[in-house]
Design a protein that fits this description.
The protein is of the alpha/beta class. A 7-stranded mixed β-sheet has the order 2-8-7-6-5-3-4, sandwiched between helices. A 3-stranded antiparallel β-sheet has the order 9-10-12, with helices on one face. Helix 1 packs antiparallel against helix 7, helix 2 runs parallel beside helix 7 and helix 3 runs parallel beside helix 4.
Length: about 375
C-alpha cells in the first residue's frame, strides 16, 4: 500500500543527519555532563555548543536559552513561573491557542485565582489588536500576554512585532508559543521584543522530547525543577545530551537550508490549493490557510463539502489508502470533542462537516499531492 505523510505540523520525520549525530552521541558521548572528567566535559561541551548555535541564529545571549522536553513544558514553565515568581495577576490570551497555554491558564485561574481574559478574533481566527489594547488599558494587576506566532491548526500568522510593541507600551510581559515558526522562519529576537518563547525540535525534523525556552535577561523566573542545578539552575536533572545534539543538527540544517526548503514547500502548498480547489467544488479553507500571503507555507486546513455521516469516516478512509493527515490539531486527534479552534470560527452546518489539516515538509512531492487529492475526490464526489 502506498503511504503518504501529510502531518508535519503534528510532527516531522527525523532527518538522516539528525539520526547519525544522535547515534554517534549515544555511542561515544555518554558521560554525565555534570561530571568533571573527560567523558563529562565532552558531553557538556556538546550542550553548550548547541546553546551557542541557537543563540547566534536568534541573535540573543546563550544564557537566555534553557533546554526543556519540548514546547508544552516551555509554555507551562513560563506561565506558572510568571504567576509564582513575578507576581502576575492576569493572563491575556486567545481561545485559539494551543492547549499548553489554554489549559495552563485555566489551571492558574482555578488554583491561584489568576484573571484570564481572552482577546477577540475575527471570523478567520485573526486576532483583533484593538481588543488586546482595550484589555491592556484595564488595570487588573501585573499582566502576562501569551499569543502563538503561528496557529498550529489554521496556519494564521500573528504580527508578533506589533503584539510585542503593544505589550511594551502597557508594561505587560509577552510570551509567544513559536513552535510552528522557529525552524521555518527567520526570527530575530533582538528585534522582536518577546520576553519568552517556546520551541520544539520535532517540528523541524529533530527528535521528540526536546526543545527550549527563550527567557530574556532579568525577567526573574525561578527554577522549574529543583535538584542538581542543571540548565543554570532553571531545570534540574541530567540533560538528555543525545536529544540536545539532535536538536542542534536539526536547527542548523533548518536555517542553512531555509531559503531553498521554504521555497520548495511553498510551491507544494500552492500546487495543493490549486489542484484540490479544481478537484472538489464547494471546498472551503478554514481561517487564512488558503491565503499564501497571510498563513504559514507549511499547512492548509480545509472544510470538505460532505454529509455528517461521511464526516465520521473520512480519516478512516484516508488512512486505509495510506494517507496521514489531521482532523484539527494532533493533540486533539483522539478526542471526540473535536477542535476547540474550529469550534470558535465555524458556524451552522459547517460545524458538522469534516475539516482536514494537510501539512507539508521538504520530503513531500507533487506526486504525493496528486495521489491524496484523487483519493479525496473519490471520497467526496
Amino acid at each position: 500500500m502506498k503511504k503518504v505523510y501529510f502531518d508535519s505540523a503534528a510532527t516531522t520525520s527525523v532527518s538522516e543527519n539528525v539520526v547519525k549525530a544522535m547515534t554517534t552521541c549515544l555511542t561515544n558521548d555518554y558521560g554525565n555532563p555534570s561530571s568533571t572528567h573527560s567523558f563529562g566535559r565532552s558531553a557538556k561541551s556538546l550542550i553548550e555548543q548547541t546553546r551557542k548555535n541557537i543563540a547566534k541564529q536568534l541573535k540573543v545571549s546563550a544564557s537566555e536559552i534553557i533546554f526543556t522536553s519540548g514546547g508544552t513544558e516551555a509554555d507551562n514553565f513560563v506561565l506558572n513561573s510568571a504567576v509564582r515568581d513575578l507576581g502576575v495577576k492576569r493572563i491575556i490570551t486567545c481561545k485559539l491557542e494551543h492547549h499548553a497555554i489554554g489549559h495552563s491558564a485555566e489551571a492558574l485561574h482555578n488554583c491561584f485565582d489568576v484573571v484570564v481574559d481572552y482577546i477577540e478574533t475575527d471570523d478567520n481566527g485573526s486576532l483583533l489588536f484593538g481588543s488586546l489594547e482595550s484589555l491592556l488599558q484595564q488595570d487588573k494587576g501585573k499582566t502576562l500576554v501569551s499569543l502563538m506566532h503561528i496557529n498550529n491548526e489554521l496556519g494564521n500568522i500573528l504580527d508578533i512585532e506589533k503584539a510585542a510593541s503593544i505589550c511594551q507600551n502597557y508594561n505587560a510581559l509577552f510570551h509567544s508559543d513559536t513552535v510552528q515558526s522557529i525552524g521555518h522562519y527567520d526570527v530575530d529576537l533582538s528585534k522582536v521584543m518577546v520576553d519568552f518563547c517556546a520551541v520544539s525540535a520535532h517540528k523541524f525534523h529533530g527528535p521528540k522530547g526536546v526543545g527550549f525556552v527563550f527567557m530574556r535577561k532579568n525577567t526573574g523566573l525561578s527554577p522549574l525543577i529543583f535538584g542538581g542545578g542543571q540548565e543554570r539552575g532553571f531545570r534540574a536533572g541530567t540533560e538528555s545530551v543525545h536529544n540536545i545534539v539532535g536538536l542542534d543538527v536539526a536547527f542548523r540544517d533548518a536555517y542553512q537550508n531555509l531559503e531553498k526548503d521554504s521555497a520548495y514547500i511553498k510551491g507544494l502548498k500552492k500546487y495543493f490549493i490549486e489542484e484540490v480547489t479544481k478537484a472538489i467544488p464547494g471546498l472551503k479553507f478554514n481561517g487564512l490557510s488558503g491565503d499564501m500571503g497571510k498563513s504559514t507555507y507549511t499547512l492548509v486546513n480545509m472544510l470538505l463539502p460532505v454529509s455528517a455521516q461521511k464526516a465520521l469516516i473520512v480519516l478512516f478512509q484516508l488512512d486505509l489508502k495510506g494517507i496521514a493527515c489531521s482532523k484539527g490539531s494532533a493533540c486533539q486527534s483522539g478526542s471526540s470533542k473535536g477542535s476547540h479552534v474550529l469550534s470558535e470560527i465555524l458556524k451552522g452546518e459547517d460545524m458538522m462537516k469534516p475539516s482536514l489539516r494537510f501539512s507539508f515538509s521538504k520530503y513531500n512531492t507533487k506526486e504525493e499531492i496528486d495521489y491524496a487529492i484523487n483519493v479525496l475526490k473519490e471520497f467526496v464526489v
